[in-house]
Write a structure and sequence with these properties.
The protein is an alpha+beta fold. 21% of the residues lie in helices and 12% in strands. Strands 1-4 form a two-stranded antiparallel sheet.
Length: 82
C-alpha cells in the first residue's frame, strides 16, 4: 500500500526530506504523498521513513485506495529506479 497523510498533519516538514522516492510534497494545507511514487520505502529502508520522523501519532496511514503487496511495492520501486 502507498501511504497517506491525514488531516492531523501539522505541516512540520519532517517527512518530505526523508522520502527516498520524493513522493511527499507540500500541499494546501497539509503535505501530500503521491501514491504512484510511494513504495513505503521498500527497496530503500526496512520501514517507512516518513512515519519514523513524523511527530504526530497516526498522521501517516495506509492509503485504502492503493492496496499493494510487498512484491508489488518492490516492483514499483524497481520501475521508479529504472
Amino acid at each position: 500500500m502507498a501511504l497517506l497523510i491525514n488531516e492531523t498533519c501539522t505541516g512540520c516538514d519532517a517527512c518530505e526530506p526523508v522520502c527516498p522516492n520524493e513522493a511527499i510534497t507540500v500541499g494546501d494545507p497539509i503535505y501530500v504523498i503521491d501514491a504512484f511514487k510511494c513504495t513505503e520505502c521498500v527497496g530503500h529502508e526496512d520501514e517507512p521513513q516518513c512515519r519514523m520522523v513524523c511527530p504526530v501519532v497516526d498522521c501517516i496511514v495506509q492509503n485504502p485506495d492503493f492496496v499493494e503487496s510487498e512484491d508489488e511495492l518492490l516492483e514499483k520501486f524497481e520501475a521508479l529506479e529504472a
